[in-house]
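To: structure subgroup
Subject: Chain for Friday's discussion

All,

I'm putting the inputs and outputs inline so they're searchable in the archive.
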Amino acid sequence: MGTKKGGKELPKALILLTSNVDHLREAIEATLLLVPDVSLTLCAQEDIATGLEALARVQRIITARRVGSVSFALGRSFVKELRAERYALCVLLQKDRAARVGLRAIALAYLSRSSRRLAHIPKVGFVPFSRAILASMSPFYLVCRPMVFLDKLLAIVIRKAADLIVWLMLFMDRHRGGRPR
């Protein structure tokens, strides 16, 4: 399924995408400098992926349904497609040095069958993947950026409340026997 050059299969690299396309372009350039002959695969949310087909050197895009504001839906078919290929490199995009990377993005990096994982920070370049994980788990992050923590907490509460309201409405409809109000 990968691209061939001179009858030889090219190594594959997977880039886990955020919504920042400029950061994606910078990460693609850095990946091509690190591994010049590489077949690139992007992993993106469906609504972001629509405009990415035209990016140079991208051979494949794996899409996932958006859940909430920034989360991936980790369905069985999506994970199967992600693990269908073996990658030489998996690149996780990180906003800045202190940015918290989502646990789903970290999980996707580990779910991908890649022999090497790196995080990419704009205008910095590649950093060890373990650094991205430590930035995500650090209590210091929550102390330094309390509004981000409160924003994430509020988003979870709103999402759960909306789920509960929908469930309650469906329960009430079934209880009434589907009679209109």
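Points worth raising on Friday:
The two ends are 55 Å apart (CA to CA).
The mean pLDDT is 77.

D.
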